[in-house]
């Protein structure tokens, strides 16, 4: 599994992309394409959209999301269109509150703790401890035409809670097309299916005498 974190990931891109006034950072940051009011967090203290921040706010640790009853956490993230995902961006911690893994499920809108253990993630990554934003490259072929993504943190690295500061996505967005209206046309008329009109031969009108 390929993933970059810290010095090998977003850290190398910070000077290049994090320009003054550049809210997105990466040109393909999907922050504006996330349906933020409808982000759902399960077993969490706070609202899911708390960690859906702009690129310029990614290192802000004043706002975060933390698991509640135990160290498991689910975030359902809907998009406003169709997405081809390139990478996940994640800042978590500190130390043993960092999730051990992150599991991604494409287009699983209603997944919960009861059924998630029986489902195979579309892709899964180990999460290292660190203060930087990690960039996790996904297998793009498995994340095309995505309308939503469910992010599952199955356990912390020792603490009773899992804490997330920032969650972001990189990729391509396109407007979701409505279902097409299908009209069936008769490709070619079959003369045997049609009653001949008086005065017509093979569809051609007879000349007047």
UniProtKB/TrEMBL annotation:
Pfam families for the chain: PITH (PF06201)
Which InterPro entries is this protein grouped with? Galactose-bd-like_sf, PITH1-like, PITH_dom, PITH_dom_sf
Q: Name one GO cellular component term.
A: cytoplasm
User: Entry's Gene3D superfamilies?
Assistant: PITH domain
Q: Which residues form the PITH domain?
A: 19-189
What is the similarity comment for this entry? Belongs to the PITHD1 family.
Report what the protein is called.
DUF1000-domain-containing protein
The species this protein was found in: Thelephora terrestris
